[in-house]
Design brief:
The chain is of the alpha/beta class. It is built from 13 helices and 17 strands. The radius of gyration is 20 Å and the shape is globular. The chain binds iron/sulfur cluster (SF4). Pfam families: Radical_SAM (PF04055), UPF0004 (PF00919).
Length: about 425
């Protein structure tokens, strides 16, 4: 559980996004702090209407970066001019607003509700397939609430997925603390079978596999990569949080994988799929992390070049074993997270840049701001189409686009 402080500037759309961020944070067990100086993380939701506003945003970001343990900047200015914060030397993570709650999780897995009921939100169906995990990470507080994995049967989950499709879902998000260990409690590793069965449901829709720890998918990674290769409905996307490039740190974190297993998973997907998205997370500044360990994480990031990266600065969660470890100084943690965030923006920017000029099919998933829509391509990369209402583009439709530009963490597309 983290404490947060959130500040919002600008239009009603920004305020709505801040409400969504807060709702997700509270659902994840986080709570508001009395002010930025007492928060584990401060979130600045920015606006960029006129030049004077930009100067104010930069000034406020500078103040918050000094006052708070960790700063996240989101909103219009973050997306349109994220470079401005970096050029001003502001130590902050610049994120799309829907990536903020995940970032604040501090490397822990997302919490799903106890009853694992599916939810339909617009054309997105959320399908929690199991609750709990098979790990005992030393920094994790989520585990206390969720316990050991408890997996409903494949039939039950397929029935829930079918109901979501019949109710209008175009994107089914298969979620859980650790989807990779689905079925372990029953003695069988059933994720590949479940994904195959969901993809067999009649209808035009896409399936996004949620967080799967490298330790959970290693061992079924070849079978899983084959499932991805044969099912067009599955977004070619996995979220496998490695957390560190150092085996010593992974051991201190009590992660179930080591760097070698993570590499094997990535290499297998590289072999089987032409274009796919690797999403991974790094915790920077874990108490035992040395300068060499940090450099190993940077090297791993340079080597595997994930298309989506979440960098979290370590913060202690009460009651966990890592909270009793002697921590690193705030300056070291800030320097390391700044270095990794800069590398991340370069790596992710190159991935989106390489999409420019290509054509691809996208699913329109939700409305964006200012008459835009947010779409996902087959590798779950975000593509924004502007003037959507004017062109009669509707949420839930599939269409072909040409990628005409990019903005580091998403691309712009024009219907063809
Ligand atoms: S896998 Fe680790 S971080 Fe995730 S819920 Fe389990 S113990 Fe927590």
């Amino acid at each position: 559980m983290a404490t947060y402080h959130i500040e919002t500037y600008g239009c009603t759309s920004n305020r709505g996004e801040s409400r969504e961020i807060e709702r997700a944070l509270r659902d994840g067990g986080h709570r508001p702090a009395p002010g930025p100086d007492e928060a584990d993380v401060a979130i600045l939701n920015t606006c960029t209407v006129v030049e004077k506003t930009e100067r104010n945003m930069l000034r406020r970001a500078e103040e918050l970066a000094d006052e708070t343990a960790e700063l996240v900047i989101t909103g219009c200015m973050a997306l349109a001019q994220g470079e401005a914060f970096r050029e001003a030397g502001i130590d902050a993570e610049v994120l799309h607003w829907d990536a903020v709650p995940e970032h604040v999780l501090n490397g822990e897995c997302p919490t799903v509700t106890p009853d694992v009921d599916p939810v339909l939100d617009g054309v997105v169906g959320i399908l929690p397939i199991a609750r709990g995990c098979m790990s005992n990470c030393s920094y994790c507080i989520t585990k206390f609430a969720t316990g050991r994995v408890d997996s409903p049967s494949v039939e039950e989950n397929v029935a829930k997925a079918r109901a979501l499709v019949h109710a209008g879902a175009k994107e089914i998000r298969v979620t859980g603390q650790d989807t990779g260990v689905y079925g372990w409690d029953t003695g069988e590793r059933k994720l590949p079978e479940l994904l195959d069965r969901i993809c067999d449901i009649d209808g035009e829709f896409r399936v996004r596999l949620g967080m799967a720890n490298p330790g959970g998918i290693h061992g079924i990674h070849e079978e899983l990569a084959d499932v991805f290769a044969r099912n067009e409905k599955l977004y070619d996307f996995i979220h496998a949080p490695v957390q560190s490039g150092s085996d010593e740190v992974l051991e201190a974190m009590r992660r179930q994988h080591r760097v070698g297993k993570f590499r094997e998973v990535v290499e297998t997907f590289d072999d089987r799929l032409d274009e796919w998205t690797l999403s991974t997370d790094f915790i920077v500044g874990f108490p035992t992390e040395t300068a060499e360990d940090h450099e190993r994480s940077m090297e791993l990031l340079r080597e595997v070049r994930p298309e989506k990266i979440n960098v979290t600065r370590f913060s202690k969660r009460p009651g966990t074993d890592a909270a009793d470890m002697k921590g690193l100084g705030g300056t070291i943690k800030k320097e390391r997270s700044k270095a990794m965030s800069e590398l991340k923006m370069q790596v992710v920017g190159e991935a989106y840049g390489s999409m420019v000029g290509t054509e691809r099919e996208v699913l329109v998933v939700e409305e964006g701001t200012a008459d835009s829509v947010k779409c996902r391509d087959g590798a779950y990369r975000q593509v924004i189409i502007q003037r959507a209402g004017e062109r009669g583009i509707e949420v839930g439709e599939f269409l072909d686009v040409e990628v005409t530009g990019h903005n580091t963490v998403y691309a712009f597309g024009e219907p063809v």
